[in-house]
Amino acid sequence: MRSILVICFLMVILGKNGFGQLHSLAVNFSDVILANMKPGMVYSLKKEKGISFEVVNKAKEKRDVEVVVEIPTENQLKEYYEPIPDVSWISVFPSRFQLEPGESMKCDIVISIPPDKKYANRHFQAMIVAQSAGKPGEWELGLGVNLRVASRIRFSTGKTPQRLMEEYRRKIYEALKLELSPMSLFLKGRLPVGRKVILGKNLDTIQLVNKSSKKYKVSFYLAQKPENFGLVEGYEVLPSEVKVKFKKVKMKSKPKSISDIIIQIEIPDKEEFYGKKFAFVVVGRVLGFDIPIEIFSRVYFKTEEKMKDDKWKN
Fold this sequence. Notes:
Order of helices and strands: EEEEEHEEEEEEEEHEEEEEEEEEEEE
Distance between the termini: 67 Å
Structural class: mainly beta
Number of helices: 2
Helix content: under 10%
CATH topology of the largest domain: Immunoglobulin-like
CATH architecture of the largest domain: Sandwich
Largest sheet: 7 strands, mixed
Shape: elongated
CATH class of the largest domain: Mainly Beta
């Protein structure tokens, strides 16, 4: 059962304490994406990647539970993926069990892809559904429906989801018409050491530009590894001692709007910070998408030289 199985993007967690739940029936993930799978192979998520589909009974009564595989509806189906041709491709072990209050069961998900070339280079999706197996209302007094919690499982027999997601991101970027501008901001003059300066108040700043007819919400943070964003040679990565704060960590961007990103920079009054060239990268994550969609801008600045009169030298 050897394979090249890769969890390449995400295992989305829902709900409090790492479980998504509905009326006291809970599961540990809502979405798993797999890559590099091959027709004719059999894959056990538990044995090969240590991933289990865990079901928890959050109710005060015991519950009979079954886990079934379903073909996704049109509303459940994610872009780039097609419904699994046959639910028999996926098996769940165990698929039926009883849980006492607070008890959980870890199930193995086994994927078996038929040995047919027509299934190569394709992307499939199925739904893993945990539901109460008793009669409607058996454990919940007055409740006339069985409880169901659905999770997605997506797998590819072609190019990796990393590349797939990059294509997805590119198309989203084109549709968003949202950006941070300029992509590289070089601050004029030299920033003072030992004082706070505010980009957008007494200095230029980057802007959130929304050219679309839709509104978005964006959260901001500093890139942990700015060197990966193609910094100009000669500038150092901003030391952790230099404090950078956003006036608003999250911003709403109205349609056809331009908004200043107000940023405060405070450089400690230390010898090693005089006469330097620093850079940092501001990343804006566009909220509301099921994959990370990020825009960024590089900020470059120089610090004042050490002078006796301690003036801000341009």
